[in-house]
Amino acid sequence: MTEATEAQRPTTRVPPHELPAALRDAGLSNWIREPLDDAVDGRRRIIMPPAAAVMGTPASASQGALLDEARHPDTVFMMGDNPALPKMPERPALKDFFLLRFSPIARSHLLQSARVARLNGLGEKVIMACLVHDIAIAGLLSANHGYWGAQLVAPYVDEEVAWAIEKHEALRYFADESVGYTYPQAYIDYFGPDYLPPDYIRGEYEAARQHRWYMTSRLVTVNDIYSFDPDVTVEFDEFADVVGRNFRQPAEGLGFDGSPVAHMWRTMIWPNNFL
Ligand SMILES: [Fe+2]
Ligand SMILES: [Fe+2]
């Protein structure tokens, strides 16, 4: 931009640096750089993607370039509220994560599963489990999502609900004709028709099969529907009563109650923090 143009169009934008080649080559120009128009305090804030998200991908090559970028005096790493995300309330409740953090597809999947469970006349433990069964995919991590999800909610739900969430991951791979559950077409699409789950998953399934809460988890899989019909909208408040009775919302807010999993909720509040 020439000096003359600059004078005509005053701007608070921070001058862009040359995009490092490593970032450009990895196609990260839009992902890791906060749009300059949103620069806070006259400084760009850049995001270091977490190792779990980029390991094994071209994006992992960006680490050095990002560290170099942060040495510019007008550039800092993201810490705290990311302007690209809605601000969370001081004391977030489960509903806030659904509405302000989870993607429309993830939110819809969870809400529709819970609705189907309710329409099927199932008990509140199953409905509650369905409502949050993929909460880890929605907000944290996909790999091992049953285990992450169960840990996230364990301090706040009945032990049986957390167990059902943990085990649904393994049970999804194995049919149970007694309740009409077949191997998901979605998994054939996602992983190919020849995919076999690893031994530890089979072991988890076989152990869960013998457990007294088996059917609770199995019913999560039965109601784990893959209907992403955009015309179907389910409001979170449809389950306000179930959540009120089955989820012990901490008064300090999720992330701030000092529970063993508070850090996991804080990670969903500020997912882009450098540390
Ligand atoms: Fe799942
Ligand atoms: Fe699911």
Quick overview of this protein structure:
This protein is mainly α and 275 residues long. The chain is 45% helix and 2% strand. The chain contains 15 helices and two strands.
* Helix share bin: 40-55%
Average pLDDT number = 88
DSSP helix count?
A: 15
Strand order of the largest sheet: 1-2
Bound molecules: fe (ii) ion
Order of helices and strands: HHEHHEHHHHHHHHHHH
Portion in strands:
under 5%
Alpha-carbon Rg, integer:
22 Å
User: Can you count the beta strands?
Assistant: 2
Q: How many strands, which pairing sense, and closed or not: the largest β-sheet?
A: 2 strands, parallel
For the termini, the CA-CA separation is 35 Å
Uncertain ranges: 1-14
**Oligomeric assembly:** single chain
Q: What overall geometry do the principal axes of the alpha carbons give?
A: globular
Structural class label: mainly alpha
Outline the structure in words:
The protein is an all-alpha fold. 45% of the residues lie in helices and 2% in strands. It has 15 helices and two strands. It has helices at residues 3-8, 21-25, 51-54, 63-69, 94-100, 104-119, 124-132, 135-139, 145-153, 159-171, 185-191, 199-209, 214-222, 240-246, 262-269, and strands at 44-46, 75-77. A two-stranded parallel sheet has the order 1-2. Helix 10 (159-171) crosses helix 13 (214-222). The structure holds fe (ii) ion (2 copies).
How would the blueprint of this fold be written?
Layout: H1 3-8, H2 21-25, E1 44-46, H3 51-54, H4 63-69, E2 75-77, H5 94-100, H6 104-119, H7 124-132, H8 135-139, H9 145-153, H10 159-171, H11 185-191, H12 199-209, H13 214-222, H14 240-246, H15 262-269
The structure holds fe (ii) ion (2 copies).
